[in-house]
Amino acid sequence: MAAKTTRSANRARPRRTLVLFLAVIIALYGLVALIGATDDSKDNPWHPKLGLDLEGGTRITLEAKAESGGVTAAKLEQAKNIIDQRVNATGVAEAEVTTQGSNQIIIEIPGERRANIVDQVGKTAQLRFRLVWAGNLPSATTPADVTAQQAEIDKVDWSKLTLDQMIAAETQGVASLPAEYQPAITALQQEAAGFVCDPNGVDVDDTAGKPLVTCDASTGQVMILSPTVIPGSDISGADPMYDSQRAEWSVQLKLKGDGKQAFKDVTTALTPAQSPFAVVLDGEVITAPASQAAITNGVSSITGGFTATTAKELSNQLKFGALPLTFGVNGSEEIGPSLAGTQLQAGLVAGAIGLLLVVVYCLLYYRGLGLVIIGSLLVASALTYVMVLLLGKGVGFTLTLPGIAGLIVAIGITADSFIVFFERIRDEVREGKSLRLAVEAGWARARGTILAADAVSIIAALTLFIFAIGVVRGFAFALGLTTLIDVFVVFFFTKPLVSILARTKFFGQGHKLSGLDAGHLGISGRKVSEIARTSRSAGTAGKVS
User: Fold this and answer.
1) Would you say the C-alpha torsion 133, 135, 138, 142 has a positive or negative sign?
2) b (16+ CB within 10 A) / e for 150-168
3) CA dihedral of residues 419, 424, 425, 430 (deg, nearest 10)
4) By CB distance 3.0 to 4.6 Å, which of 55, 167, 370, 457 could disulfide with 363?
5) CA–CA gap between residue 310 and residue 243 (Å, rounded)
């Protein structure tokens, strides 16, 4: 009775694995439907994001403005690399960034026109931490001429101020600064009185070593800020974070070097009175939170009404560094797909013909087992498609012709896994095992080979993704994705399905169309459901029930 129970449990296991795996795929498609029902965008959730070569997109031309040192080829190349990382932070969005001439950068982004892309890629992203010497000042209604005041401010050597003196100017008032700075402080106050805070953004000369009059555009609050206390170069990392308790997005910063120590000193001094500490990006105050505690580990969060998108954009800008040049938009236009419809159609037809030949060969050589290969390829295709849809929504994965090539190449990898498994089964039957025993023994020998082969493909894809640029990274991502899918399909679909089929009369008894008949396997004197007679066993071969 116990043996019968054990056999029933073993018999149910492949069925349960198969059902659970198919249920996961169905759940993934349900997730796509849910995203489509709750997404406010007009994008079709069942249509993968296509690249420039297949769908077209937006071309933006940025022109560098001459600054100190001029526009050099090295600075332009550095700016190009930073912009490429900003718009293609995941490496799979297939944006193309190139230089043109001596002072232009061309950005081509697939999909619909994005109004915010210029702000995202063109900001210099100079982040600075400054002390708030005066805050809560009203915005003027009309701008004042502050040329004389700025000249007075520029005459002072602000680099002589120590960190303790700048902190004291906030905690004790600007009157605590040395007498030589007082005329410049008066000029700063006059400049603040005539400062107009534009809700669409401010345009100020943000120089690190000088005080700054600026505002928080979201609140209209004008501030007088100290020279930079911590520069953006002291940031070692930036990541978007979601606070579930406050239901708000923030950007978590990690400071290094001198910035870490300065942040500790500043927050320690400001915490008793909960004085504010301003975070300034490109001259505009992002946030000026009150210091609630001394921060000794160099980890801080920037808040300020971020959404998931704006938090991610800011973290990318800070993570990949500031642009060495200032850019202006020289043109923006929509472009069509670079591949004509006939070229794409010809490529798809060629791929379909190749797939058809593989299917025909499998049916002719493996007969009934060929249907298992076809079913596994269909499941792998369904899983690949839903993952492409979800990754397009989640990380901006964009499908281009090189990406499609990566998906097609992986079909061969998937088919190889099936062939390795089936050939191991055939070898085990030839060595004398019954079909049901051969399936388990063959799988035990085949899975190591399958994992080793897939590991090589994944390592190759990972290497390409890390060291390549442009559309090659899309190819590598697609290749790695489909190779991982191959592992899941072989382990959780193909193997359980073969185990189930081995118990059926058509396959288990070796029907001549099953591909597992004695003649096709090259054995004689017994059925595939029987164990071969060995020197250690007497009598006739027996059946395994």
Assistant:
1) positive
2) bebbeebebeebebeebbb
3) 130
4) 370
5) 15
Kind of pairing between the strands at 104-110 and 57-65: antiparallel
> 175-204 as b/e, with b when 16 or more CB fall inside 10 Å?
eebeeebeebbebbbbbbebbebeeeebee
Neighbours of 462 (CB within 10 A): 14
pLDDT band at 239 (very low <50, low <70, confident <90, very high): confident
Rounded to a whole number of angstroms, the distance between the first and last alpha carbons of the chain is 15
Q: How many helices (H) and strands (E) does the chain have?
A: 16, 13
State how far the alpha carbon of 527 is from the alpha carbons of 153, 228, 500, 531, in Å. Answer: 98, 85, 19, 8
Q: How many CA atoms lie within 13 A of 378 on its CB side?
A: 9
Phi, psi (rounded to 5 degrees) for 117:
-70, -35
Binned at pLDDT 50, 70 and 90, residue 537 comes out as: very low
Q: What is the pLDDT of residues 462-495, one digit of tens each?
A: 998 888 766 678 788 888 999 999 999 999 999 9
What digits encode the pLDDT tens for the residues 91-105? 555 677 888 888 888
Tokens of 83: 């912009």
CA distances from 187 to 142, 152, 213, 353, 459 (A): 18, 7, 11, 77, 62
Exposed e or buried b per residue across 259-279, where buried means at least 16 C-beta atoms within 10 angstroms of its C-beta? bbebbbebbebbbeeebbbbb
Contacts of 36-44 spanning 24+ positions with Cβ under 8 A: 39/393
For residue 399, what is the DSSP state? Answer: B
The rounded distance, in Å, linking the Cα atoms of 150 and 143 is 14
The answer to whether the CB of 277 falls within 8 A of the CB of 131 is: yes
Q: What is the DSSP letter of 531?
A: P
Residue 243, H or E segment: strand 235-243
User: What is the pTM assigned to this prediction?
Assistant: 0.57
Query: At a CB cut-off of 8 Å and minimum separation 6, what does 14 contact?
Result: 495, 496, 497, 499, 500
Nearest to 329 by CA among 66, 19, 59: 59
Torsion of CA 422, 423, 425, 429, to 10 degrees: 140
Cβ distance 262 to 182 under 8 Å? no
Q: Which residues pair with 212 in a beta bridge?
A: 225
Residue of 128, 125, 185 whose CA lies nearest to 152:
185
Residues 6+ apart with CB under 8 A from 377: 355, 359, 411, 414, 415
Q: Contact, 386 vs 25, CB < 8 A?
A: yes
**How would you classify the pairing of strands 277-281 and 104-110?**
unpaired
